[in-house]
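Write out the 3D structure for:
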Amino acid sequence: MSTNIGVVMFPGSNCDYDALEAVQAFGATAHILWHNTEDLSNIDAVILPGGFSYGDYLRPGALARFSAIIGQVKKFAALGGPVVGICNGFQVLTEAGLLPGVLQKNKGLKFICDNIKVKVEADSVLTHDAQRGSILEIPISHFEGNFTCDYATLEELESQDRIILRYEDNPNGSMGDIAGICNKQRNVVGLMPHPERAYNSIIGSGDGEILIKSLLNSASIFSDSK
């Protein structure tokens, strides 16, 4: 039976249909979840996509965290549901308190759009099927992707093995070369690179496939546990 993946759409989201296409390519049923959605009972995983939620007029993700759906995402995550925030979605997760740290402006104050390499460092709902230590080439597209936290938080992320992806050649000044992290339960993930833009070799490297498939497998496991 197909898993049901919900892709959250905020005013200003622009990578929502990219995410829909990526999960549908591997057999999942995808649903757009408008920001005022209050029922996730039929959803097996949630993706918060990239874009500019509410125009990013305050801080990226700062206004989106007040949306009705974020309360539902928190409840969903508390039950063990897989949640992945990509780029602006990562920023929303930090603002909502589902992940630690903040995303600030890139070093050099420049927007970066490029293919970069990341190393798989740890297990999570997004990396479970990827080989630890493997190198993936995945695109980035952001101005505020510089992950920052206090040193106690960085030490906690390191000691708890919660840094799931690291940049091989840090493009934005992110602390610890961090490209992606997860929560303690490993079911909530935030990352700046866009695996949905590289899920096959026609549109990109194809290295995003293993991450998308990992999320879908995690969604299937969660669905079976309900």
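The first strand starts at residue 4 and ends at 9.
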